[in-house]
């Protein structure tokens, strides 16, 4: 039987899987063919239900879920309270990189990504998109294929004080582990655009098909191929070794000056892990590696041509290791972790300039040329952690379970511009003179920054009769903000029945942001930049020099660095209420989460001070409701095994939404706004009072229906998903309004509600008995009904020339073949 775990603080309790439980029967069916009922596992004999403080999806559940790309975001996207940025997924269906994930309606960079309990966040290039002179990135440091994962745990409420560095939540992925018995498994998956639905466009953004669309990434043609291998087992009585390898390839022939030019993306993952028993000590070693690469080119923003100097390649790679050592002592269990990760983002480009050209020599024409420049950034992170779990202490009828620990995280980062990089506007005048304006020169060289964090934490779980109280406190010093903060975590639970199948829980907690080292690094980079204004050259317009000495400029400004110690550490407060109940074979969890995000950071350029300025002016209030129903054991009918679940979620959020023309731009920390006031649909309000927008649909519902016929080796897994239309705020213009007698700049906005969507994902798997269960063939279809509706809009409201509408992905067909020893 496949199992799924509902997590309660640090105590996982397993309940039978509802997410395609039948696939396990197909894989291990021969032992069950002679039985009329499922075997009774030890876990089901003492079935308990604990508060759903988090979700644990195990190996079998990962295998079972029908999805397209095998990424964390696609695995988690249908869970209540979890939102992903799939706004442009339809027109970029060939992409391999995962989407950003938002937990508890926090900004995506406030999700703490962990591998084996070790934070692996990319904190230097966590922006979602690249731009001239800056590297794009993803908050997650590793893009691991979910086929290489043993389990995925999500903690989005009542998070234990042992965990920090987030205001949203924690996603902890465990890589596959070797068992005593040797096993080898290979899987191949592929899809092709000719099998799938074309991206849907409307008349306003039909130009997405042509090179006039900025970065030229309209991906109507692609083929994706995924290879996955895992080998593991015992090599001696006390030692086990595991090896995992995944290679993902995507060929994307993009439109290039009226023809097709092949662009390739690859995502490679690899790990080696070692488990050992050394006397009284338990040892775990793990090495991990990941590299994502993509080829790109830029289209001229103003013409139907692609500049020959615009090609570049991005890469994001990481390698690291973790060593865990633990043992039991008379007083309790001692856990120790040492980990290191190096993450590197790099761009290799044709040229080191990007210009917008205004040509007045023969009438008037305009265009863009160049690329985003050659540069790289490297992040080194060392993590040290030690915790002691004391044996239970009894004082009368009261039991205490106490843990104390310490943690240190040492971050350093270095960036490098290989050559001088230039961004500017060029004016070629009719008289042959050349002018350059808004000319920013970043000098070749390196820039560095570092930031360390130190934490102490303590927890005490107190149990008395039907009452359980979890007390936790985390004290943390953050060098980057030069602050020491305290994060209390408290939760109380009351069991109406002694078997814990009827429980009510209430918790209040505070969480603080982790390091945002990228801002410190950006500040150092700004110190290498100079801004030249109104520069006139006496040279010929066809031979433009990029040497400032060849120009006479009206002004030149050296950018000033900013000090992050002036900022407050972003934090969030929560109130979480949960009720768990099991009646017979039905398990129910109802939850309410009130999450208050405060002191969110953004960076803006202050023209008066002539330097960047940090603002702690981002905040939101989110009410998140969820209810889950599932069956504890599978049902038997029609010769098969049947199970299912129903998840419902509702999000009501107000807060600092986007006041720019780019969809959900408030998540880009380097594109901030000083505006406190907005006029939304004619109503004047503070920015914190507007709809936050974000990636969340207000109402979501997911219905899972799964079946297995072990005697035939067949499993059939289905997921019907409903998403309410997202609420967006669209920028129109900036105007001045009289507020309490003072002329004040406000952003004039309009609201828009996108369309609701119902999709049906299905997966059919056959493991023929004549192949002795060594061979599996499967077919997955996402969005079987091929429903495509508008899910996001980006641009200036009321001006269709500068507004693009995006739809969800249409039908996708995936073929899967697997071999197992």
From TrEMBL:
Protein name per UniProt: TonB-dependent receptor
Lineage: Bacteria, Pseudomonadati, Pseudomonadota, Gammaproteobacteria, Alteromonadales
Domain (TonB-dependent receptor plug) ranges: 57-169
Subcellular location: Cell outer membrane
Species whose genome carries this gene: Ferrimonas aestuarii
UniProt topology in membrane: Multi-pass membrane protein
Entry-linked Gene3D superfamilies: TonB-dependent receptor, beta-barrel domain, TonB-dependent receptor, plug domain
Gene Ontology cellular component annotations, sorted alphabetically: cell outer membrane
Family, similarity comment: Belongs to the TonB-dependent receptor family.
Listed InterPro entries: Beta-barrel_TonB_sf, Plug_dom, Plug_dom_sf, TonB-dep_rcpt-like
Signal peptide segment: 1-34
Coiled coil regions, renumbered to chain: none
